[in-house]
Amino acid sequence: MTIQQLHYVITIAEQGSMNKAAQLLYTSQPSLTSSVQELERELGITIFHRSGRGVTPTNDGAEFLMYAKQVCSGFDELKSRYSGEKKIRKKFGVSTQHYSFAVKAFVGLVEQFDTAEYEFAVRETKTRDVISDVAQMRSEIGILYLSSFNRAAISKLLRANGLEFHHLIDCGVYVYLWSGHPLADRQTITFADLKDYPCLSFEQGEASSFYFAEEILSTREYVRTIKACDRATMLNLMKGVCGYTLCSGIICEELNGGDYKAVPFDVGDGGEDTMEIGYIVKKDTVMSKTARLYLDELTKVLGIEL
Known about the structure:
elongated, 10 helices, 4-stranded mixed β-sheet
């Protein structure tokens, strides 16, 4: 086993393709494939599933990649410190459902560093991609929510991917809308109040499921619905068509602007009324210093202590 082989499998996992990885590594695809197969024989495991769509880590491969990244990171830092070479840029990534507070915390983190020395990434994305990104180590931390409705399904998916969920905060359900909306001045809003306005939700892709919805109460019947793929479009639709979405009530005016507000949602008797927001990480891993600093920023934004 060599550092080069570890670097090869990490690049393949990040690209999801032997061909793309070979191009980045300036080697031929047959040579790259041969190197991986030699490593698999030595380890006695299969690192990647190979298909017409590309390659994905097996369960054994995902575990091996976790340790390989730690070894390569330590080797790069050692080489940078003692070889006199140009300092290698460190990487840190966060994947999150569409939460402005998660982005605000990321901004607070980045402000502490010289971005010339780091390769930072923040990915506001679909629920399944948040899980996939952390499982495949594209991101060290993922941010999502659990509820009584989706908890069993999401928890099962997390366990299958070797991930664990850590609680951050419990939130009530709020209606998030434009401050000029006809219902914006209400003390509370009921389901019946919303029947004349479109419900906005984030598109979850072809593999969508009620369990992956970012909005609580996703199984209710909404007369009018519009899906969006990004937060900017969602905010424009709130103004343009008087749409609304259901959220945690945690608003970051610095990022979304001051033209929106969250009004408590009266879910009615027996309605689901709590969102548990937390972060996911790979099990049995040592969290990086950068990840710990990000969580510190997150607790500041949320006003909590871990």
